[in-house]
């Protein structure tokens, strides 16, 4: 792997030097592919417009992040920004340590392989494009048309651009992004064939404990084998240029709290009386758009809620609770409120027009 890493570092150094003036563009692109937006933007938007597709998107996002975390622990992948200081390659060759730049988005604390940005984006965007093509009638069993070709071309280009931004930031090596793209796409293809319509709250509770248990089992096995599952956090603290670049919401355990919380919250929301009452009301286009705006607004506001950091265990517990409440609000409460207030708002508007 040292040979692959060394050649990749040379490519990163060249990329950063050549496109130094365009770094803000790479920041924007990387942010666009951030896995958290699968939960805070795509999920509330799509669920508000189409509940069936939205539910599938939530499941794919959750499973993609869970599998990404477990694979990262197992594969033990390095990240460029710390590997250049830990490796003995440059001492052996007598060459200087590469001048890799770090940015405020560089210092991810989890292991590097596979790339979460590439993996989650590949999974989520696959569901979105498949749903778009199905609704447009572009997916046919006998042939493919121009719209499908263009859509999948855009899909591929977007994934490559997001991966390039992660390489530019020195957060990933190129092969880690490629691996993430392949696994994410394969995961979405598999999940897209599964029907989720008949799942009850019990299934979601079991799934939550299954995700948590399997992740903790992986953590425990690594410990038994004499490995430190949190080795990457130590590397990040040691080699990140600025300590303020390090954030707790990039740690493996925070990721675990997010996908477990969302799984449980999704189950509670879908099986709540509020969701059932909202489902009884036929939603117009205006109601769907209003629900989407409110749901995304709730998701954005949740980012501003400070989690207590005086105790690390309580911080992660708070993250779990917050990520359980959020999907419940987006899935159940927002549609319920819109279904109850919309007739009043529309009725009042009609009366004013008549007057």
Description:
The protein has 15 helices and no strands. By secondary structure, the protein is an all-alpha fold. The chain is globular, with a radius of gyration of 22 Å.
Descriptors for this entry?
355 residues; mainly alpha; 15 helices
Helix tally equals 15
Structural class: mainly alpha
Distance between the termini: 76 Å
Oligomer state equals single chain
Q: Using DSSP, what is the number of strands?
A: 0
Quote the average pLDDT.
Answer: 90
Extract low-pLDDT stretches.
none
Largest sheet: none
Instruction: Characterize the overall form.
Output: globular
What would you report as the Rg, rounded to the nearest angstrom? Answer: 22 Å
Provide the succession of SSEs: HHHHHHHHHHHHHHH
Helical fraction equals over 70%
Kindly estimate the percentage of residues that lie in beta strands according to DSSP.
under 5%
Can you summarize this structure?
This protein has 355 residues and is mostly helical. The protein is 73% helix and 0% strand. The chain has helices at residues 2-18, 23-32, 36-49, 51-75, 80-86, 89-93, 116-136, 146-168, 174-191, 201-224, 231-239, 252-270, 273-279, 285-302, 312-354.
């Amino acid at each position: 792997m040292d040979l692959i890493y060394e050649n990749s570092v040379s490519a990163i150094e060249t990329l950063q030097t050549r496109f130094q003036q365009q770094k803000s563009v790479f920041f924007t692109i990387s942010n666009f592919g951030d896995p958290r937006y699968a939960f805070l933007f795509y999920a509330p938007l799509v669920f508000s417009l189409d509940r069936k597709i939205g539910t599938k998107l939530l499941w794919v996002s959750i499973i993609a992040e869970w599998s990404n975390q477990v694979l990262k622990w197992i594969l033990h992948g390095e990240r460029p920004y710390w590997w250049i200081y830990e490796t003995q390659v440059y001492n052996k060759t007598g060459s200087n340590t590469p001048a890799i730049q770090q940015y405020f988005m560089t210092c991810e604390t989890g292991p590097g392989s596979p790339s979460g940005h590439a993996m989650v984006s590949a999974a989520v965007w696959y569901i979105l494009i498949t749903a778009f093509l199905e609704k447009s009638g572009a997916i046919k069993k006998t042939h493919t048309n121009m719209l499908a070709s263009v859509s999948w071309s855009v899909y591929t280009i977007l994934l490559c651009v997001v991966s390039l931004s992660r390489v530019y930031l020195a957060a990933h090596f190129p092969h880690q992004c490629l691996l993430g793209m392949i696994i994410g796409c394969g995961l979405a293809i598999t999940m897209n064939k599964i029907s989720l319509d008949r799942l009850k709250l019990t299934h979601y509770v079991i799934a939550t404990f299954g995700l948590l248990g399997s992740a903790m089992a992986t953590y425990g096995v690594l410990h038994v084998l004499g490995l430190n599952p949190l080795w990457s956090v130590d590397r990040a603290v040691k080699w990140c240029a600025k300590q303020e670049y390090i954030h707790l919401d990039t740690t493996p355990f925070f990721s675990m709290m997010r996908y477990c919380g969302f799984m449980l919250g999704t189950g509670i929301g879908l099986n709540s009386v509020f969701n059932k009452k909202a489902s009884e009301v036929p939603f117009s286009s205006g109601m769907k758009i209003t629900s989407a705006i409110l749901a995304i607004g709730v998701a954005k506001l949740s980012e501003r809620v400070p989690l207590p950091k005086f105790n690390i265990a309580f911080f992660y517990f708070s993250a779990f609770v917050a990520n359980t409440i959020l999907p419940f609000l987006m899935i159940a409460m927002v549609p319920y409120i819109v279904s109850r207030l919309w007739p009043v708002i529309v009725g009042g508007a009609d009366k004013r027009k008549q007057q």
